[in-house]
């Protein structure tokens, strides 16, 4: 339990840095409004400027549209099998993003504007913290894209995780995660919610936002707590981070088929997700790789 708590406190701190420091691109190409399908988005030319920032040690580079997923071949430190390699983490990240973007699995991106927001604002990287930090900084400095990472020397990679099979009576605080959860799922999910935040004001995580007010109702009713984690993190657990984590927890509970344990505010958050066009309410970790183009 202590290992899991430390792992996901670290995840929460990373997302906090993202929410508090990252500025989304304020302009978006209007041409995406005219896209009736996803084929042209998926097959469009890449981002040579971003590609030039990726060192040769990153053996695996994929893109979906202009959204890049890259990684080293470093072995995950904690996994449910000893023979896991870095390539498998990258490939599952590609599959997760493919599934998030194509929930109905018809081979087309459900919401081209979501893919556009991902490509304009973010990249996703897999590898050790030591390898990733310089690349994260370089890509953001050179391209303006914030790199969200799966740090395989810190966080657990459990590729057999299905999002189901855990016991839960209620989500009582921001620190809750299933013990055997694959951290890669959470990082990919947060990348999706951040892309929504960049393209849609309704996805704001502030105290006066729709999502923020719902979490505040849960806290006021005594059915949810963020103060425990805030104290552990020395007062640095900010509100926007907490809302982001709250959304993820609710999504995860619904994915597991346990929405009956959700409080009224949590159910309203779930309804908000369900009402957002193209928002992925399920994920297939075995989604085909066809939606992506291998760059390296």
Structure in words:
It is a single chain. This protein is α/β, with parallel strands linked by helices. The chain is 45% helix and 8% strand. The chain is built from eleven helices and five strands. It has helices at 2-21, 39-43, 48-51, 86-101, 112-121, 129-143, 183-199, 210-220, 227-232, 239-255, 264-275, and strands at residues 60-64, 67-71, 122-127, 146-151, 293-294. A five-stranded mixed β-sheet has the order 4-3-2-1-5, with helices on both faces. Strand 3 (122-127), helix 6 (129-143) and strand 4 (146-151) form a beta-alpha-beta unit. Helix 1 runs parallel beside helix 7 (183-199), helix 1 (2-21) crosses helix 10 and helix 4 (86-101) crosses helix 7. The protein is globular and about 50 Å long. Mean pLDDT is 87; it is low at 1-7 and 26-41.
What is the mean predicted local confidence, pLDDT? Answer: 87
Order of helices and strands: HHHEEHHEHEHHHHHE
Main sheet: strand order: 4-3-2-1-5
> Which term fits the overall shape?
globular
**What percent strand?**
5-15%
Q: What structural class is derived from the secondary structure elements?
A: alpha/beta
In this structure, how is the largest beta sheet organized?
5 strands, mixed
Q: Please compute the radius of gyration using only Cα atoms.
A: 18 Å
Distance between the termini: 38 Å
How many beta strands in the DSSP annotation?
5
Instruction: Tell me the number of helical segments per DSSP (H or I, 4 or more residues long).
Output: 11
